[in-house]
Amino acid sequence: MIPPFAYVRARSIDEAVALLARPESRPAAGATDLIGCLRDEVFTAKAVVSLGGIEAMTGIAETADGGLRIGALTSLTTIVKHALVAGRYPALAQAAASVASPQLRNQGTLGGNLCQRPRCWFFRGGYDCARKAGDTCYAMQGDNRYHCVFGGSTCLIVHPSDTATALTALDAIVSIAGPKGTRSVPIQQFFVLPEKDMTHENVLAPGELVTTISLPAPRAGLVSVYRKARARASWDFALAACAAAITIEQGKVTAARIVLGAAAPIPWRVEGAERMLIGRRLDEPTRARVAAAALNGATPLEHNAYKVAMLRGVVSEALGSIG
């Protein structure tokens, strides 16, 4: 049973910011995660602020330098079907297409997908866990089969967003509006590890909201891909995922981004593995070495050692689809 709350429709970004600055006000875009969080008592809401009528936060537009500007309220289905996204940034189109079911992709938004809360069953369940200001991460001693192998420290969640993994590989910029004005944050600085902030997954302050996500113009020779392993092929959250954005000139790699999904509390970039690609051809021996290096430093938990091999496999598959 969801406790009662006020429902307000914001007509502009400024109005939304003013409404969200009030205590226990929550934004609603597609609301596909919001309703579940309220039902599961992940948080409470005195007011829900609908963003759906803010036209400035919707749509996909080409920028003057050949990049793309995507409104945070743009549906995942729109992203999947957009010719410029599919043509220039296939990793993002593939990631968006892998989210949930067609019905949820029709409703869900890009901004909402980036800002969704963790799926950890202790966090979503009736546990006073560390991420809800308690003093214990129950996954450390409990059923942790879906939890992280990198970056966990005092909280072992994995970030649930497919699009976040792809956008990190593509060096996206997140635009944010709030009571103190607007700011732009590189996506690698948007998400935060538990050791920095135990109770938040990103840098949004009270009253702030994501308004747009911008992608730089693709470099000549850039190829990108997203690969995901999940328990159910029809729809499910990732057990392991990889986004790769590789620039190839004259048959050799000149730039590389490899980002793991469902591996850490944030999209997890593996820079050591990236460096191994530079100056090399993307042949099978190179792919195998890089896939193995991508899991250097992984620390599996009692019940999720399978993730190491699975993540290695999706890295290999992603690079193989490029090479």
Characterization of this structure:
With 323 residues, this protein is an alpha+beta fold. Among the domains are: 112 residues, 2-Layer Sandwich (Uridine Diphospho-n-acetylenolpyruvylglucosamine Reductase, domain 3), CATH 3.30.465.10; 101 residues, CO dehydrogenase flavoprotein, C-terminal domain (Enolase-like, domain 1), CATH 3.30.390.50. The chain contains 13 helices and twelve strands. It has a five-stranded antiparallel β-sheet. A four-stranded antiparallel β-sheet has the order 9-10-11-12, with helices on both faces. A hairpin with a 2-residue loop joins strand 6 and strand 7.
Quickly describe the structure.
The chain is α+β, with helices and mostly antiparallel strands and 323 residues long.
Helix content: 25-40%
**Overall geometric form:** globular
Strand content: 15-25%
CATH class (first level) name of one domain:
Alpha Beta
Biggest sheet: strands side by side, in what order? 4-5-8-6-7
CATH 2nd-level architecture of one domain? 2-Layer Sandwich
Oligomer: single chain
Specify the number of helices.
13
The CATH topology of one domain corresponds to Uridine Diphospho-n-acetylenolpyruvylglucosamine Reductase, domain 3
Give the topology.
Layout: E1 6-9, H1 13-20, E2 25-28, H2 34-39, E3 47-50, E4 60-62, E5 68-71, H3 76-81, H4 83-88, H5 90-97, H6 102-107, H7 110-115, H8 121-124, H9 162-169, E6 173-178, E7 181-186, H10 187-190, E8 209-215, E9 222-229, E10 240-249, E11 252-261, E12 268-269, H11 271-277, H12 284-293, H13 306-322
